Prior knowledge:
The protein is of the alpha/beta class and 399 residues long.
Amino acid sequence: MGDFNRSVIFDAIRRAPEGRSRVELVEMTGLSTQTVSNIARRLLDDELIVEAGKASAAGLGKPRTILRLNPEGHYAAGVHIDPAVITFVLLDLTGQVVAHNRLKTPTAADPDHVMARIHDRFEQLVAESGVAREKIVGLGLAAPGPIDQERGIIVDPPNLHGWHRVPLRDALEASTGLPVLVDKDVTAAAVAETWVGGETGTGSFVFFYIGTGIGAGLVLGDELMRGVSGNAGEIGHIVTDPDGPPCGCGQRGCIAVTITPQSMVDEAEATGVLAPAPHETPREIDAQFDLLCEAASNGDAAAGAILDRAADRTARAVAALTNLLDVDRVVFGGPFWARLEARYLERIPRLLDEYSATSAVRGLGVAGTGVGDDVAAVGAASLVLERSFTPSATRLLLD
Ligand SMILES: [Zn+2]
């Protein structure tokens, strides 16, 4: 229980960039003055927070000491394994990226080789950051689902051929000596939003992730919903287009085959909007997708229509989720989001209003993530911060 109170106090401080006084913390948490004092002392000793000046409330009483997060107290590392690129980040305690690195995902899909490259690049990241290794509390790893969270295994990700049941967590724990957490990239992205997304990361929201695949991260009442096996949010087979193209699952028009960058590129090539080019690898798809978005923003009506159709299907899928969960907002992100943002944000809010079951009661917020393209890597590191320091954590890495 002591640990729980400690994380409650820590969470209240971290959510207030301007800091909080002990008196405010007593009022907010309902804990006794003595308990708050003791916990603040421990947090100061552990360098998680600092005393940052004094403030007086409307000139009444004696000035109160402000407690604030100590950015340099601890750090967390994050690695996002994407079919096209592996991204590495080191975050300070406030969620700021202090070091960043990228590695093209080796095309030879031999997991041992890839794991050795990941380890080397991680060591390089730490060395270049100048951060003392003992201040890094853990390493988070985000990858396309499904995952076997108990064993720390990527089961058989559809877009990473050859990665059948790779025991990533154990291998990286052995090579780095750090605790390693494994989660789906979409889940990690939602955690990034709660840790560093500011206003859009509070309350209840659906994080709609547009990567090589499509997925959702669910946060309800400031808590991440992982599901029974850590695989909540597998939304790829929501049908938005019953007459659409066939999907591997046996249905037609799933969002997995209508709103992914690959499916938009396929459609563009089939209709002559783009000249056919090889797009077997994620990098080739990325390049073709670039051309499609460029054509649309240069006024090519047929290219624009492909993106608009995808936006409409996206809105239908999002509405299925937001009507089910009754959330404050939907937050879009993922590596392809930046290229779609302007067009999607023009179209989707209006459609969601139409599809929303509660539009007569309240509006549904629509936002693009503030975290940027690296949201899954930042999320992977945020997993470590979340597990170490938030009240919902069942295990605390620091203890
Ligand atoms: Zn399907």
